[in-house]
Amino acid sequence: MKRTREQVADSLKLPKDFILGASMTSITGCEEAFIENYKGIIEICSNSVMLQTKTCRMHFIGTNLAVDYYTDEEMKITGHIEQIHFFE
Questions:
Q1: Residue 43 falls within a domain, yes or no?
Q2: Of 14, 27, 23, 32, residue with least CA distance to 80
Q3: CATH number of the domain residue 32 falls in
Q4: pLDDT (tens digit, 0 to 9) for every residue of the chain, 88 residues total?
Q5: How many folded domains does the chain comprise?
Q6: Which spans in the chain are helix H?
Q7: What is the pTM of this model?
Q8: C-alpha 37, offset from chain centre
């Protein structure tokens, strides 16, 4: 089923985040990250932010990390981002 949706998105030139519900992450330097289409916040502390997306978990590691704002659809993480890990 997932492969069929990917093929439809590719053939119609539609964004995969729209068709598959995938998360979009935009990073500005190592100081901020914008995440769209996340499902929930698992953990927040000054050196770690972990999120659940539809397809995986995202783990931001750094110093002075904070969630600047969040809504049901997007969030902004600020601080010094050193690493980002993805877990299935």
A1: yes
A2: 32
A3: 2.60.40.2000
A4: 556 766 666 666 665 655 566 788 999 999 999 999 899 999 999 999 999 998 889 999 999 999 999 999 899 999 999 999 999 8
A5: 1
A6: 2-12, 16-20
A7: 0.79
A8: 7
Q: Is 2 inside any structural domain? A: no
Sole residue written with tokens 């995938």: 22
Per DSSP, 15 falls in state: -
Question: Is the residue at 10 inside a domain?
Answer: no
Indicate the pairing of strand 38-45 with strand 32-36. unpaired
Write the DSSP string, 58-74: EEEEEEEEEEEEE-SSE
Closest among 22, 35, 30, 42 to 70, alpha carbons compared:
35
Find the domain containing 27 and state its range. 22-87
Residue 45 lies in a domain: yes
